[in-house]
Hints:
The structure is a single chain. By secondary structure, this protein is α+β, with helices and mostly antiparallel strands. It has 2 domains: 2-49, no CATH class; 83-192, CATH 2.40.50. The chain is 21% helix and 29% strand. The chain is built from 4 helices and 12 strands, in the order αααβββββββββββαβ. A 5-stranded mixed barrel has the order 4-5-6-12-10. Strands 7-8-9 form a 3-stranded antiparallel sheet, with no helix packed on it. A hairpin with a 3-residue loop joins β8 and β9 (154-157). The longest helix has 22 residues, at 2-23. The protein is globular, with a radius of gyration of 31 Å. The relative contact order is 0.14. The model is unreliable at 1-76 (pLDDT under 50).
Amino acid sequence: MVKHARPIGAVAAALALALGLTACGADAAEAPQDDAAPDAASDATAQDSPAPDDAAQDAAEQDDGAAPSESEAPADEPGAGPLTVTAEGDGPIGLTTGDAPAGTAQSFDGRLITGPGDCFAYKDRDRPQLLVFPADAEFVTSGERPSVTAEALGTAYAGERIQVSAVEVPQDEIDGIPEQCAAGAADSVLVVVP
Length: 194
């Protein structure tokens, strides 16, 4: 039987080489197929192979079948991107956003003030934290005592105690905060949520 070992090894090597070539891009017409279980690798052609620039996207798609686009990424997912705020008024300034903050909301009980840079802020005992309200908030910034009205808060006047549900977000993860508001405020901002 030792005499037959070499021919069997050579046949096995040739068969392995043929299968390797078939999997590396042989046309479906050139490679034999089993009708009961088609070989996905033999269906691929050299034209179907991804371009080098697509390699990273293809690797991401292999994780769960499809790579989410930025618009499909959940807004509450950490790292979803910076929040964008809009400043309203000339002083005091109210900050609003239509973006959903990443993180878990907590209850904050303190005082509504016009703080750093004449912007609405929350004051408990440390440095004032800027407050960012939902986009539908309305501000009274002249003629009367400054106030803010928001569904999540009702109407609150500067100097009053407030209790809000908010997500604490690092200031450097928010776009659009006026420089005068950022100066002197805490490093984190409270984004009020309904």
